[in-house]
Write a structure and sequence with these properties.
Shape: globular
CATH superfamily of the largest domain: NADH Oxidase
Oligomer: single chain
Strand content: 15-25%
Number of helices: 16
Distance between the termini: 44 Å
CATH class of the largest domain: Alpha Beta
Bound molecules: flavin mononucleotide
CATH topology of the largest domain: NADH Oxidase
Helix content: 25-40%
Number of domains: 2
Length: 524
């Protein structure tokens, strides 16, 4: 029985000579879009303008003073959702078409689902809706004032009604079909990727927001009508409102009818992987810390002799504006053996640094649950080696001087193309510290935060004309070993970045000054 992050991570580690063969059951491939029997999603408005800004502007400007908007309309919901999770590319296969999305996802299996609860938003009834990515539409699940239940499950002391709440869930079997027990890692990383897109959309629209991985899981799952054996809530984001909370509740919300709950099923023969449910359930209980919170950078057993401040340019060398970048982002693996410029590297490091409002959000800050490093093989002005980033003091330091990018490609299940990347970013944690400080729920913090940072890297790289690809598959012990981590610590996620063939790298219309971002015909 799995009770801790350390146990789950250990049990789902890949070992080079102990990989059990696994054949994908194509007849039983999960659907990637959730549908409710008898409910047709209502299309959200399509044609619209997107904010003209750059990622540098979004990620470096502190948004702490953004004001609660006087009103929001259905177009705002549509815009936010397009920037968060939209179909952006189509591939044709022998058995039909397949659509890729704004956010990266391990194996393009898309376990993450989104639900929205608006209150007083123009053009849409108050209630709870499921977001259908395939239709860019909303399916009404519950009507009326749900806020007494939302507030009770999320922040019981609050007296105000949030204007908009976005819930994120993951459907276990979507990723488990391919990755089996290991897939809880991908449920969390993938959800982090989508969450980062949502928070960037809020920043771009100057909306204040709060995000949380902490709430009453059972109440939120019940509110969303999830079959929580198959699908569970993982995170939520809210735009605060000013109106006082109306109505009260001492009881749980009504169960959603069984036929609606059955929408959490995504394949005929779903295989249950108990360790996924066990680690998730272990995180439901709140535990008191047996160790005070401290930043993960001090818990890995590696430390540089000196720290150097990042010398980031005031504006990053972006070639496309924010919205265009979000819609154009792809995983790119065709790296060429060219160095990346120092300005690009500093911009990538700058993007991973924490703004003041992020660092102050809570005492047990999710950003503290991981530590970031980077392996350099080819970058102007940097010696090859393994470096650690201190994202709070915006500085970096070298751990050892040797390019291990080729070795790392070998550790990443011999994905040889990874050896051609200029940089590997590595997101690491000490799972035992997670357990001692945060309890098993800490695993969610660490993995979703790593996913958010991964999406950030993808976007900033894309905006600067560089290629990027996330890597969740590696031999875990070998990875920790070549990084020289202490015996407790592990690599969680690797993101490769470098120069790729065929991507525009000239500075063009910086600042996203293009008037409108249009997708090809066929995309909503
Ligand atoms: C958590 C995560 C792990 C991934 N692991 C790998 C990997 O090991 N190898 C790989 O080639 N791509 C990997 N990818 C990239 C996905 O295959 C890619 O995101 C997906 O096919 C969708 O394509 P897109 O990113 O171009 O939209 C990963 C992506 C994520 C988010």
């Amino acid at each position: 029985m799995i009770r801790t992050s350390a146990q789950y991570h250990q049990q789902t580690s890949y070992k080079r000579h102990e990989m059990a063969g696994h054949f994908l059951d194509w007849e039983n491939q999960p659907t990637v879009s959730k549908t409710y029997p008898g409910v047709k999603p209502v299309r959200l408005p399509g044609e619209m303008q997107f904010p003209h800004t750059t990622l540098c502007n979004l990620l470096k400007k502190d948004r702490a003073r953004n004001r609660t908007p006087l009103s929001l309309g259905i177009e705002d919901i549509s815009r936010i959702l397009m920037l968060t999770c939209r179909l952006t590319a189509r591939a044709r296969h022998a058995n039909g078409e397949f659509y890729y999305r704004t956010a990266a996802s391990a194996g393009a299996l898309y376990p993450t689902e989104i639900y929205v609860a608006p209150q007083g938003v123009n053009g849409i009834e108050d209630g709870l809706y499921h977001f259908s990515i395939a239709h860019h539409g909303l399916s009404l699940l519950r009507k009326g004032n749900l806020f007494p239940w939302i507030v009770k499950a999320v922040q019981p002391m609050s007296t105000k009604t949030p204007l908009l709440t976005f819930f994120f869930s993951a459907i276990f079997f979507r990723s488990a079909w391919k990755y089996r027990d290991r897939s809880y890692r991908y449920h969390l990383l993938d959800t982090g990727h989508v969450l980062e897109n949502l928070t960037l959309a809020f920043k771009a629209m100057s909306l204040p927001y709060t995000s949380s991985y902490d709430f009453d899981d059972y109440e939120v799952n019940r509110l969303l009508g999830l079959d929580d054996f198959k699908e569970v809530s993982l995170a939520l984001c809210q735009i605060p409102g000013n109106s006082p909370l109306q109505g009260q509740t001492d009881e749980g919300i009504d169960e959603i009818p069984d036929h609606m709950k059955s929408a959490s099923r995504v394949a005929h023969k779903e295989i249950d992987y108990p360790s996924i449910r066990e680690i998730h359930t272990a995180g439901v209980r709140k535990t008191s810390p047996s160790e005070p919170a401290s930043r993960m950078v001090h818990k890995l057993g590696v430390s540089p002799d000196t720290w150097t401040k990042i010398d980031a340019p005031p504006t990053w060398p972006e070639t496309t504006g924010y919205a265009e970048t979000v819609f154009g982002r792809r995983s790119r693996r065709n790296f060429v053996l060219e160095p990346i410029s120092q300005a690009c590297l500093f911009a990538l490091l700058d993007a991973l640094c924490i703004t003041e409002s992020e660092s102050n959000s809570t005492s047990l800050n999710p950003y503290q649950s991981i530590s970031t490093g980077f392996l350099i093989s080819r970058s102007e002005g940097f010696e090859p080696g393994f470096y650690l980033l201190d994202s709070y003091s915006e500085s970096y330091g070298i751990i050892f001087r040797e390019s291990i990018i080729e070795k790392m490609a070998h550790v990443c299940l011999d994905q040889a193309w990874l050896a051609n990347a200029a940089i590997h970013f590595v997101f690491m944690t000490n799972p035992h510290t997670l357990d001692r400080v945060w309890g098993a729920r800490g695993y969610r913090y660490a993995m979703m935060t790593a996913g958010m940072m991964g999406e950030r890297l993808y976007l900033v790289a894309e905006a600067m004309g560089l290629g990027c690809c996330g890597i969740g598959a590696f031999y875990d012990f070998e990875a920790a070993e070549i990084l020289n981590l202490n015996t407790e610590s592990r690599l969680l996620y690797l993101v490769s970045v470098g120069v790729v063939k065929g991507l525009k790298r000239q500075k063009s219309e910086v600042g996203g000054q293009r008037s409108e971002v249009r997708l090809k015909k066929g995309f909503h």
